[in-house]
Amino acid sequence: MRKIYFLSLLGLLLSINTFAQKVDFEEYDLSNGLHVILYQDNSAPVVTTSVMYHVGAKDENPERTGFAHFFEHLLFEGTENIKRGDWFKIVSSNGGTNNANTTQDRTYYYEVFPSNNLKLGLWMESERMLHPIINQIGVDTQNEVVKEEKRMRYDNSPYGQWTPQVFKNLFKKHPYRWTTIGSMDDLDASTLEEFRAFNKKFYTPNNAVLVVAGDFEKASTKKLIKDYFESIPRGKEITRTVIKEDPITEELNVTFEDSNIQIPAVFTVYRTPAMTTRDSRVLDMISTILSGGKSSRLYKKLVDDEKKAMQIAAFNYSLEDYGAYVVLALPLGENTLDDLVNEMDEEIVKLQTELISDKELQKLRNKFENKFVNSNSSIEGIANSLAKYYMLYDNVNLINTEIEIYNSITKEEIRKIAKKYLNPNQRLVLDYLPKTAKE
Signal peptide position in this chain (predicted)? Predict the structure, then answer.
């Protein structure tokens, strides 16, 4: 039995070590500006083809919000060579899966196929980029799909309105102030010409990165990429200006009522720097100290020991231009939201005034090592990371080196960054309450 246990443990350690090895990738540009990243791994007969476009909710007209997320749906409608409704049939009938997602900063499409269907995956993504059919029937169909998604995820979901409420109050100038799903009134008011103009502006090769990851042969794959993508016309260059927000200098207090909940919640939210900064990564570590598991400070204190909260969380919602550091709690019993805020503040003050222990720092680093390894433990995950590090960080090799940044963060930095950003006069406090019946 001991021998079996030892061999199992050894196998686990070896697999972790394998996944933690350096990701060897190759990157280059086509003549039309499309950036290409190749990661070859022939250990399993699977290949991921993906395209990330540098377009998200922040790139929208303030009177036409929701366009980027709408296109996440619309660009599955069909192309000049893929009939309407056939996209998913083609993928599934060839043993593949596919999906897409949108954030405030980018839109990501991907397929996972058996490696003998690499050519199909590349062709489909080139079709999406070159020959999308954007017509009224597709717009009308996806308008209904997006409305249903909004009802499900926001309108009828418990606590579904917290992100709209937080971001519209935390940001007054920057386009992060509206949600990715946008306004249904804006989408209803949009014309077909506006949708086509949005596609022409943003879904271009020089505003995208193509990633091929998995089981393939480089020379033949490069030829396929050239054949399918290089003839796609380059788009006009996109000029972006980061809109600067005025500092928050006194606590902002907001109340919102939600008919979908029975238990209130409180959110304390601080505006923080871009995901690319070292400060943002320090805030990631602070999140883990406060609520990363059952032994974390806030969970142990408020949920386990004092039983004042039924749920607690702290996380750094980091984005390309800014971030939002969120600490939230749901009260248990007769405890009030003010009680919870006072308790959360108490733990933050400790981080601002006391150094964490050597043991706590090592535990923190171990957790980030594990997270780093897991993010690169699948071909699909590696493809996503490669695209993200190129598009949003302008440094693809962070897929190998970002953990070094986290490991170099000191106890003193943790104290300094907590003191710099997590102060009551720099935050929004959202009391998220059950909706009371009107008499």
Answer: 1-20
Write the pLDDT tens digit of every residue in 179-220.
999 999 999 999 999 999 999 999 999 999 999 999 999 999
Q: What are the tens digits of pLDDT across the range 293-324?
A: 999 999 999 999 999 999 999 999 999 999 99
Residue 388: strand, helix, or coil: helix
CA distances in angstroms from 269 to 247, 275, 318, 335, listed in the order given? 14, 16, 12, 20
Q: Give the long-range contacts of residues 352-359, CB within 8 A, separation 24 or more.
A: 352/415, 352/418, 352/419, 352/422, 353/415, 354/415, 355/411, 355/412, 355/414, 355/415, 356/289, 356/411, 356/414, 356/415, 358/411
Nearest to 245 by CA among 277, 274, 278: 274
CATH 3.30.830.10 fits 252-434, yes or no: yes
- Asked: is 23-229 a CATH 3.40.190.10 domain? The reply is no
> 11-15 — which CB contacts under 8 Å span 24+ positions?
none
- Fold match, 23-229 / 252-434: yes
Q: What are 271's strand-pairing partners?
A: 324
Which helix (H) or strand (E) covers residue 110, if one does?
Answer: strand 107-114
- E strand spans, 7-102: 25-29, 35-40, 46-53, 97-102
